[in-house]
Amino acid sequence: MRGILLIVRRSLRQHLFSTTITVLSIALASGLTMSVFSIQSQSREAFTGGDLGFDAVVGARGSQLQLVLNTVFHLETSPGNIPWTLYTELRDKYPGVELAIPYATGDNYMGNRIVGSTPEIFTKFEYKKGRKYAILEGGRPFDEGYAEAVIGSVVSEQTGLKLGDTFNPFHGIYFDPNARHPEEYTVVGIMDTTNTPSDRVIWIPIEGIFRMTGHVLRGTGEQFTADAVAAIPDAHKEVSAVMLKLKSPQVGWQLDQMINKQGKVATLAHPIGTVMLDLFNKVGWVNRILELVAYLVVFVSAAAITASIYNTINERKREFAILRALGARRRTVFSAIVVESACIAALGSLCGFVCYGAILLVAAQVVRQQTGVVLNATTLHPSLYLTPLGMVLLGALSGVIPAIRAYSTDVAENLAPHS
């Protein structure tokens, strides 16, 4: 075995340039393969199995998926509004509802969603078990009745807003410089990073949404414009959604029966993870295409190993003949080529972790900026060890054809010096 390793080391050093190119191609293939499966797994877990804090969402009659994307992940337009009275009923009349928090959406600042809600979002809601939204030192939650805002960490990074700064909201969920509201809000708090979609949100008192210039309320079915200071009758109020924390899953099935199957005013999305899983199942073909591309790159890299070693066989025929003349068996020559192929694949797989880290860091930055969800490069996924093992095995198999050619080298013919 020691002799085989010496042969392999000499060959790798002698053909350093072609070996380096092959190693880099394998590194890219390994890194891409590991990245595709890791990003796919983490994204699926974050959107379908992660701890979202809420168990269900009630919103306007329509698509459950649109409702979840708009309220939980802040990625879609609102399907409409529901009466404020439905929120108060869910909050006060259903003992199975542990927490009900209203959301009012439809405005933005520089493309970042503005969500009107109640202070309970900071005082009672837990986005993970035992963890509430924390506000960085010097800040505080907004006070109801005041033009105050608490911004997420991503919002602070992207806009440069800091404590004490003021800003004007813009109408709509997409930034339009011509849709500026005259109301001015003061930043009174910056949220600590949560690694959730809430990092991309600007939170303001829900009354601020009701009273913003250009907004009308239709809780009674007729248009109502709120006065700057006068109290707004509950009958006129409406919200985009009500976020629910339930005491048990059975409560969710009961509400589903009441709201979705018997009611005609609203839609209940429950459980949230199941709604998102349906989305991933529908777009599963995208993941399969990415996997196919990764596999194709792997096989191209295997072909590169075969070509790289095969092209050196002619210039190494004399070397193999000398080894045979010195007593080396044919299987020794065969083994040396296969081991050399496996070593090249192993070196490429090790370098593949560098490519994997680079790809995932870039992808994580993009995903965080767009969704608030964070991908972790250190999360252990089976592809992180199966891919290198598979590449080494594939590399060894790729060396079989060149090894057969080296194995069949004619000693007498190749010992003679070249003229």
Commentary on this structure:
The chain has 419 residues and is an alpha+beta fold. The chain folds into 2 domains: 2-47 and 284-415, no CATH class; 56-270, no CATH class. Helices cover 52% and strands 15% of the residues. Strands 1, 3, 4, 7, 8, 9, 10, 11, 13 and 14 form a 10-stranded mixed sheet that branches.
Task: List the topology elements.
Layout: H1 2-14, H2 16-49, E1 56-60, H3 64-71, E2 82-83, H4 84-92, E3 97-109, E4 112-117, H5 120-123, E5 126-128, E6 131-132, E7 148-151, H6 153-159, E8 166-167, E9 170-171, E10 185-190, E11 201-205, H7 206-211, E12 238-239, E13 241-246, H8 249-262, E14 266-269, H9 272-282, H10 284-325, H11 330-371, H12 383-398, H13 400-407, H14 411-415
Helix pairs in contact: 1-11, 2-9, 2-10, 2-11, 2-12, 3-9, 10-11, 10-12, 10-13, 11-12, 11-13
Quick overview of this protein structure:
The protein is of the alpha+beta class. Helix content is 52%, strand content 15%.
| Terminal CA distance | 34 Å
Ranges with pLDDT <50 over ≥5 residues? none
Number of helices: 14
Beta-strand percentage? 5-15%
Shape estimate:
elongated
Main beta-sheet strand count, sense and barrel state: 10 strands, mixed
Structural class label:
alpha+beta
The Cα radius of gyration reads: 31 Å
Please give the number of β-strands: 14
In N-to-C order, the SSE pattern is: HHEHEHEEHEEEHEEEEHEEHEHHHHHH
Average predicted confidence as pLDDT: 85
Percentage of residues in helical conformation: 40-55%
Pick out its properties.
15% strand, 419 residues, 14 strands, two-stranded antiparallel ribbon
